[in-house]
Design brief:
The chain is α/β, with parallel strands linked by helices. The chain has two domains: about 230 residues, Type I PLP-dependent aspartate aminotransferase-like (Major domain) (Aspartate Aminotransferase, domain 2, 3-Layer(aba) Sandwich), CATH 3.40.640; about 90 residues, Alpha-Beta Complex (Aspartate Aminotransferase, domain 1). The protein is built from 15 helices and twelve strands. The strands form three sheets. The protein has a seven-stranded mixed beta sheet with strand order 2-8-7-6-5-3-4, with helices on both faces. Strands 9-12-11 form a three-stranded antiparallel beta sheet, covered by helices on one side. Strands 1-10 form a two-stranded parallel ribbon. It starts with a helix and ends in a 7-residue tail after the last helix. The structure holds pyridoxal-5'-phosphate. Pyridoxal-5'-phosphate binds next to helix 4.
C-alpha cells in the first residue's frame, strides 16, 4: 500500500502529490528561459489565466504568498495602509512581508467567516487631510476564506466592495488562492468575481493539485510592475514551463472535481453533527471544515495513530481540508476514525 493510500491526510489541500498524468504533461512541456520571456508554456498559461479572469495580463509566480506581496507592493507606497480581515492570509501567515518588503501597515477588520462587507470596509478606510494618518490605498479580500471555513464572497458582495473602493479611489486585490472552489460551489464565472478587483491571484498548488505555482492578474501596467518586482524578490524562474504545464493540466482536469471535495466535507460534517462531543463552529460551503473538541492536539494525535491526519489550529480547534488525494474510501476512514475518537471527548466550550 502506498503512503498516499495508507494515510488520509486532511491537514491541507497543499499536500497533494502530482498525478502520473500531470507528471506526463510536465515532462512533455516545451520550455525556454522565462526570465527572457521565452518560455512558451509559461506565456500560454499567463494568457489563459488573464483571459479566465477577464484581465489584461497575468504573471506566473512561485507562490500565493509572492502573488499577494506583489499585489501589495505594486499598488501601494511605503507608509500606506492595507485594509484586510484579521484572519486574512497575508496578515496571519505571510511573515509580515507586506510590512518588511512593501513598507505598508496592515489595518485589520473583523466579520463572520473571514468576510468583509462594504460597511466594514467603509468604517476601516483612513483617507483624510489629517497628516497624522496612514492612508488606506488597498483593500484585500480572500476568496475563499481559509480561516473562515472556506466561505465564499458572492459576486454581488465583491461588486459592492469594488464600488466603494472605486468611489474612494482605493485599489482592490482578491487573494483568490481557492477562487475555483467558489467558482464550483456557486457556479459563478471567475471573471465575475475578478471584475470589481484591480488584481486577483489564485493558486495552482492547493485544490488544483499542482506541486508549485500561482498567478497574479490585473491591468497591463500593474502586471509589468509586478514582473519587475518578481525579479527583485527572487521569483524569476527559468525553464518554468514544466510547472506551467502542470497548471494547464490542472485547469483542464482538476476544476470540476472540486465539487467532490465539497461533497465529502458535507458528508464528514453530517457524520460529526450526530456526535455529541464535537462542535462545528463555522459553516463549511467548500473544502474546509473546522471542528472544535476539548483537546485538539490530543484528538489529532489519536486520529494520527489510526492513519487520519488533522491540523490542530488552536488548543481546541482542528482543521480538515479535502483535496484530490482523498477519495470516498478516505472519507469513510476519516468518518470512522474521527467519530470513534470524538466519542471519547467532552465538548469544547
Ligand atoms: C488564502 C491563502 N492565500 C495565500 C496562501 C499562500 O500560498 P502559498 O503557500 O503558495 O504561499 C495560502 C496558503 O495556504 C492561502 O490559504
Amino acid at each position: 500500500m502506498s503512503k498516499k493510500q495508507s494515510i488520509v491526510d486532511l491537514r491541507s489541500d497543499t499536500l497533494t502529490l502530482p498525478s502520473k498524468a500531470m507528471r506526463k504533461a510536465m515532462a512533455a512541456a516545451e520550455v525556454g528561459d522565462d526570465v527572457f520571456g521565452e518560455d512558451p508554456a509559461v506565456n500560454a498559461l499567463q494568457e489563459r489565466a488573464a483571459a479566465l479572469l477577464g484581465k489584461e495580463a497575468a504573471l506566473f509566480v512561485p507562490s500565493g504568498t509572492m502573488a499577494n506581496l506583489l499585489a501589495i507592493a505594486t499598488q501601494t507606497v511605503p507608509g500606506d495602509s492595507v485594509l484586510l480581515h484579521e484572519d486574512a492570509h497575508p496578515f496571519q501567515y505571510e511573515t509580515g512581508g507586506m510590512s518588511m518588503v512593501a513598507g505598508v501597515m496592515p489595518k485589520t477588520l473583523t466579520g463572520p467567516q473571514g468576510l468583509l462587507t462594504p460597511e466594514s470596509v467603509s468604517d476601516g478606510i483612513m483617507l483624510t487631510r489629517d497628516s497624522h494618518r496612514s492612508h488606506t490605498t488597498l483593500v484585500s479580500i480572500e476568496q475563499t476564506t481559509n480561516r473562515g471555513g472556506g466561505a465564499c464572497y458572492s459576486k454581488e458582495s465583491i461588486k459592492a466592495i469594488g464600488a466603494l473602493c472605486e468611489e474612494r479611489g482605493i485599489r482592490l486585490h482578491c487573494d483568490g488562492a481557492r477562487i475555483f472552489n467558489a467558482v464550483v460551489a456557486d457556479g459563478v464565472d471567475p471573471a465575475a468575481y475578478a471584475a470589481p478587483c484591480h488584481t486577483v491571484s489564485f493558486c495552482f498548488s492547493k485544490g488544483l493539485g499542482c506541486p508549485v505555482g500561482s498567478v497574479l492578474a490585473g491591468d497591463k501596467e500593474t502586471i509589468e510592475k509586478a514582473h519587475r518586482y518578481r525579479k527583485m524578490f527572487g521569483g524569476g524562474m527559468r525553464q518554468a514551463g514544466i510547472l506551467a504545464a502542470a497548471a494547464e493540466y490542472a485547469l483542464d482536469n482538476n476544476v470540476e472535481r472540486l465539487a467532490d471535495d465539497h461533497r465529502r466535507v458535507t458528508a464528514l460534517r453530517e457524520a460529526l453533527e450526530a456526535i455529541p462531543n464535537v462542535t462545528l463552529p463555522l459553516p463549511s460551503p467548500t473544502n474546509i471544515l473546522f471542528i472544535d473538541v476539548a483537546d485538539a492536539p490530543d484528538f489529532a494525535d489519536r486520529c494520527n495513530v489510526r492513519g487520519v491526519r488533522l491540523l490542530p489550529f488552536s488548543p481546541t480547534r482542528l482543521r480538515a481540508v479535502f483535496h484530490l488525494d482523498i477519495d470516498d474510501d478516505g472519507l469513510q476512514r476519516a468518518i470512522d476514525v474521527m467519530t470513534a475518537t470524538a466519542r471519547q471527548y467532552a465538548t469544547a466550550k
